[in-house]
Specification:
This protein is of the alpha+beta class. The protein contains 21 helices and 11 strands. The longest helix is centred in the middle third of the chain and has 32 residues. GO terms for molecular function: heme binding; iron ion binding; monooxygenase activity; oxidoreductase activity, acting on paired donors, with incorporation or reduction of molecular oxygen.
Amino acid sequence: MNQEDLYWFTFILVTLLGFFTYKLLTRHRSYFRLLRVPFERPHFLYGNLDDVLSGKLTTMEKLEQFYRKFSNHGLFGFFNYMTPALYVRDPALIRQLLQPNMSHFESHGYFLDEEKDRFLGCQLHLVKGAEKSTKMASFLSPIFRTPKVPCSMDVTTRRCCAALIDFIASRVELELELKAIFVKHTLNLFAGIAFGRELNTFEDDTDRFCAVASGMAYGTNPVQVIKTMAFYLMPGFMRTVGVQFTDREEMDYLVKQYRAAASAPNLHSVARYLRQANGKMKPSEQLTDEQLSAQCAMFFTKGFEPTLNLLSFAVYELAQNPDVQRKLYEEMHHNGLTTGSATGVPPFESIRALPYLEAIVLETLRKWPSHPLLVRECTKPFTIPATENGDRAAIPLKVGDKLYVSVWALHRSGDYFPEPERFSPERFVGKDVTNAAQPSTFIPFGIGRGCLGQEFVKLMVKATLVALLQRFKLQPGERTPEPLQLIESASSLEARDGFWIRLEPRL
C-alpha cells in the first residue's frame, strides 16, 4: 500500500468511525418525537445539560425551566446527556399514574439490590418484589409511624440538643457556618436514636462509629466509590465474581452495634423496637439480626441528610425572615417553652403542640425539598394512556424504564403556590397538608406510602429549632448569601456558600 492509498484508507476509516460514533450517540434523538412528547432538541454529546455543565444552573433549576416551558403538557422529555428521561409534570397525571399503579413502579431506581449487597439490599427502599416490599413496609410502619415511639426518644434528643447549644454558646460572638455544626449534631442524634450510642462529636469524633456512619451517609469511603462505579459499568461481572457492596468488617460492626442496643433493657432506640416487633412475628417470618441491623442502618442513612438539610434551610429562612422568627418565639412563649427545662428542650409532646412551628417546617420542605427529584422504575410492563384529544400517543413502558417527578419544580410553581420564592409559613397554618395545596403538588416525602421516618425527621428538626430559639436570635451575617445560591449535588440541595448565620444571645 503506497502513501496515497494509506491516506485514503485512514480518511475513510476515520470518517466511518466518526459516523457510527455519531449515530451511536444520537440513537435516542427521535425517542420523544415518535412518542409525541414535547422536548428540546439535545446536543449530541451533553443532551440538555448545557447550562448545568457550564455551571450556570443546577439540574433542578434546569428542570424548572423545562417545567415552565412545557406548561401546557402533562409530560415532557429531557436528555440526561443522550439518555432520554420522561418527566411527569401534571399533578393530576402524577396521581393517575403512580398512586393507583404503585405495583408497577415499586423500585426507586437504585442500582443496589439483594444480589449486589445482601446487607443493604434487604432495606425497604431496595427490596425487590411486591410481596417482599409489602411485608417489610407492614413490619416497619408501626415502628416509625406510631407517635409514642419517636416521643419515647426525647431524652436522647434533649441530650444532643444540650450538647449543640453548649458548643454554639462557646462561640456565640462569631458568625458560624451552621451546616458543618449540624453535621455533628445530626450524627449524635441518629447514632443515639438508631443504635443507642451516646456520642458527643463536638468533644470527640474519633469513635469508629463516626467513620462508619459518615461513609454510609455520604458514600465517602473510597473503596465504596470504586465499587459503585464498577457496579454501574460492569454489573454482570461484579455479580459473577460475587463482590458485595458493603464491606464485611463494617457489616459485622453494625450488627454488633445493633445487638448491643437491642438487648439494653432501659435504652429507647430503633434497634430495641425492631427486636420487640420481630419477636411478635411468626418464627418462620422473623428477620435475622443482620436484616434488622440493615433496617437500623437504613433509618440512619435515609434520615441523616434530609434532617441535616431541612434544619440548615430552616435556620437560614428564620434568619432571613425576622417576622417569622418573632411569631415562632411568641408561640413558644405562649406555650411556656421559652424558659426550657434543665436540658434546654421541652418534651416532644409539647413541641407537637406548636402549629406555627409545623407550618415553618412544611414551608421549608416546600421551598427547599429534601428529595427534589423522585424516580420510579417500572417493574412490570405498563402503558401510559394516550391523551383524549390525540396530542400524545400511548407510551409503552418496559421493565427498567423510569419516570421522573421534579418535586423542586412542583413546589416552586406559581400555579399552586402564589409567590413561590417567598417564604410564607402561613400557607400551611390551620390547614391539613393535603388541603394546603392541590393534591400531588406538595410531595416532600414522596408518593404512595412516602417516607416512613418523616415524623422522626420533623421532630428532630423542631426540637433543635426550639432549643436554638430559646437561647439565641438568628440573624444574617456578613457572609450570609442573599439569595441563596445552589451548586450541583448528586441527590439533594447544596448551598454554594454554606449557611453562615450570626447568633445573638437572648437576654
